[in-house]
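Field log, afternoon session.

UNIT: design team B
ACTIVITY: writing a sequence onto a fixed backbone
BACKBONE:
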């Protein structure tokens, strides 16, 4: 299992001009790490919808890679999106699952099927082009460049601990404000 901050730090180190759609606890960690906040579209209070928004962005902007940083509980609330993504097959979509086995934002309750849900298997069955699972930071660091260079859609299951142990994190920007910022950034380049 990886430290959640370290796992997202590896993503941040590999990020160039991708639009990133983080949600739930992952968005708070990502907000502390992101070097390109003008290309971040944090989904505050939208559990279950990050993958849908990321899909829309990927279809609207095929020239730009889109990263969704979803939570395991969030994805479980909208599993149908896996089939929709697999069917539409945007090659520029990378779907990261921040898998800590709990609804951390709402108090740490276990997600249904904690430790048993196979997101990699679900993604493959739904039609994703590629799917990977990472449990250790060294392997993630070594393989991420290759993973994000593959045509998608790609799912990356990140097995992480709880972020609450990291102490207070800065609040993320509101979604409406972020949407205006991302739109302006994409219009400029």
């Amino acid at each position: 299992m990886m430290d959640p901050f370290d796992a997202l730090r590896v993503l941040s180190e590999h990020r160039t001009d991708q639009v990133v759609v983080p949600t739930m606890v992952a968005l708070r960690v990502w907000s502390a790490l992101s070097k390109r906040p003008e290309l971040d579209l944090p989904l505050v209070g939208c559990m279950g919808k990050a993958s849908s928004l990321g899909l829309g962005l990927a279809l609207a902007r095929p020239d730009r890679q889109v990263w969704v940083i979803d939570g395991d509980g969030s994805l479980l609330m909208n599993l149908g999106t896996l089939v929709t993504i697999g069917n539409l097959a945007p090659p520029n979509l990378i779907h990261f699952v921040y898998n800590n086995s709990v609804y951390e934002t709402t108090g740490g309750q276990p997600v249904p099927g904690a430790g048993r849900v196979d997101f990699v298997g679900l993604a493959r069955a739904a039609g994703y082009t590629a799917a990977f699972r990472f449990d250790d930071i060294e392997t993630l660091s070594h393989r991420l460049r290759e993973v994000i260079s593959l045509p998608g859609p790609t799912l990356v299951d990140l097995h992480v601990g709880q972020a609450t142990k990291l102490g207070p994190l800065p609040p993320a920007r509101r979604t409406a404000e972020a949407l205006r910022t991302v739109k302006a950034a994409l219009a400029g380049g």
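LOG NOTE: The helical segments are 4-14, 24-33, 50-60, 72-76, 80-88, 119-126, 137-149, 175-187.
NEXT ACTIVITY: expression trials, pending approval
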